[in-house]
# Entry
Amino acid sequence: MIKVNTTRFGEIEVKEDDLIELPHGLIGFPELKKYVLLDHDKDSPFKWLQSLDDGGIAFVLINPLLFKPDYMVEVSEEEIGDLDLKKEEDAVISVILSIPTNPQNMTANLKAPLVFNLKNRKGKQLVLRNDAYTTRHNIMDEIKKHSATSTGVSVQEAIEKAKADKESSQQTAKAAEGTTKK
# Structure
């Protein structure tokens, strides 16, 4: 077991089997190589990629197919060779989200997805050559385009829940502030 004190989750214990290694780190964080995936909520489409090397670093991830069903990651064998992928179904693709104060403006980095090998727990961030993808792809725009799909609705519901949770925590903070001022 690895114990890590994190900013978001307090002290967590991670089994060696749950460790994910990113041998090249992430863009901007090449020195951080060990991570764990944590659920945001039980039914949420969001996951946290928590660094085990720096407890203050965690990224929100999502499966891009949930909001952009036509998303394609085209890479060469050379680019993902170090992941030792034997079968395509062993690969999981995720993208990093940026969540501003207003979750309606949430964006996803479709230009630099993460590819994980489920078998050996290795991962890598890629930079795609496809100019149709950006580092700040608006999720709500995609949900509106694909609103007929049920997966788009679940992401929309998760965004609404995140917005409501944020407003609730802000109200609680204001109430607590008012109590301490008296």
Summary: The chain has one domain: 2-181.
